[in-house]
Amino acid sequence: MNEQEKDVILLSHGDGGLLTHQLIQGTFFPGFNNKWLEEEGDSAVLNFGQERLAFSTDSFVVSPLFFPGGDIGKLAICGTVNDLVVSGARPLWLSAAFIIPEGMAIERLSDVVRSMSEIACQLKLPIVTGDTKVVSSNDPENLFINTTGIGVIYPESNFNVKNVEPADKVIITGSIGDHGAAILAARLGLESKESPQSDCAPLDFISTLLRPYFPYIKVMRDPTRGGLATTLKELAISGSFDFWLEESSINVKPKVKAISDILGIDPYYLASEGRALLVVKNGQEEEIIKELKKHPLGKDASIIGYARAGKGNLFLRTKLGGTRPLQMLAGTPLPRIC
Asked: Nearest-5° angle of CA 331, CA 184, CA 2?
């Protein structure tokens, strides 16, 4: 980054990596800082009477609007639902706001709305309020959506990165980088049968299967922008410990690896939109894996590493026996991924 770029917003400020982190810490936290934001969770945890509520918001700017395995509408519902789920909550209500480009075909917008309605109905989750704005744009596909969700946190859950201890195990519920690779394939114009499919899906099954194990789950995240590596690096920094990962245990599908190799992109930094990362109490990992594998979206769940005392580092033991440090994503060739 040159001196001039340091004073302006770049697309990389939105990739969920190092520049996003610096923007939040340097611009937003000083202006909005409070005890809820300081937790830096996927949802704010709010006490309301005898209940704890999870409150999360997310904006979606993905391009193209429709991609193998999903579309911006499905993504907008799943993204906010998943932020609530990994916070240990049962989603209750959603809002939806649309910034619509002038010139967009109403039929195209209707397809997006229909997709949102289908997944919300599947989850029995009402969209109870919303907003629309129309803006001038040179691109009739330049649709942006914001969704906000409120959920009630299960009494058994107390997910917090500060709970992580040495020897706790890291679990991923499936393969990594599928969504990011699908967006890349769509932009390259690959035929659907040749391209990776986005893993975009709701993670509500996790609460159904794992609620009895919530006391043993230390923290949970969905590795969206910045992928597996950035998400775990953020957790390691927040908790002041290290993670050690085993490359041989991490599932990168052949089509995802092929796209990554062609374009020189590390799949550890590609987004997933239907996966969860769990850090669980040492000794409970096999039982949790067994439960996850009962659901189609968890059938490929695996233990990929563990926590160690440290200073916020993330290390990967490679298949060749070497050790590779993984840093937070710094700059990305893939803007507008979600």
From this structure: 20
What tens digit of pLDDT does each residue of 147-170 get?
999 999 999 999 999 999 999 999
- pLDDT tens across 75-124, in order? 999 999 999 999 999 999 999 999 999 999 999 999 999 999 999 999 99
The CATH architecture of the domain made up of 40-153 is 2-Layer Sandwich (3.30)
Instruction: Specify the pairing of strand 127-135 against strand 302-309.
Output: unpaired
Q: Specify whether the CB–CB gap between 180 and 67 falls below 8 A.
A: no
CATH code that applies to domain 161-325 = 3.90.650.10
Q: How many CB atoms lie within 10 A of CB 14?
A: 19
Q: What is the helix (H) or strand (E) element at residue 128, kind and residue range?
A: strand 127-135
**Helical ranges in the chain per DSSP H:** 18-23, 29-32, 72-85, 106-122, 178-188, 205-210, 227-239, 254-263, 285-292
Q: Domain residue spans in the chain?
A: 40-153, 161-325
